[in-house]
Amino acid sequence: MRKTIDNTRANPIKALGADEDGKIRGYMCLTDYECEMGLADCRHSIYPTLELCLELRQCADQCGIVKIAIEVEEIVQEPTGYLAEVEDDKK
Ligand SMILES: [Zn+2]
Fold first, then answer.
1. Residue 10: its pLDDT value, please?
2. What b/e string do you get for 61-85 counting C-beta neighbours within 10 Å, with b at 16 or more?
3. What's the pTM?
4. I want to staple 79 with a disulfide (CB 3.0 to 4.6 A). Which of 6, 65, 68, 83 is the partner?
């Protein structure tokens, strides 16, 4: 029997690299965030450090950079593969 993940908590998943509050923080192009992020077309990179963002985003001087925080709001589809097997192993 598979354990159901409790998605009623504020942050149901503590991801690797997440801060104490369960949010993952990163850096991205300010123009991408301001003009395109809300369209959620999955073409925007988020970098774990400011240094990496500056190194890999050649538009940084022109566009600017923002620090963002990401958190899970809701699990909308339960896993049936690897994550579900990990949860079963915890029993
Ligand atoms: Zn840019």
1. 55
2. eebebbeeeeebeeeeeeeeeeeee
3. 0.71
4. 83
pLDDT digits (tens, 9 = 90+) for 58-84: 999 999 999 999 998 888 988 888 766
72 Cα: distance to centroid of ligand 1 (angstroms): 25
Instruction: Scan for tokens 């949010």, then name that residue.
Output: 23
As residues whose CB is below 5 A from the ion ligand 1, the structure lists 29, 31, 59, 63
The two tokens of residue 79 are 């896993």
Please check whether residue 11 is in contact with residue 21, taking contact to mean a CB–CB distance below 8 angstroms.
yes
Say how many Å lie between the CA of residue 36 and the centre of ligand 1.
11
- 49 C-alpha vs ligand 1 centroid, how far in Å? 16
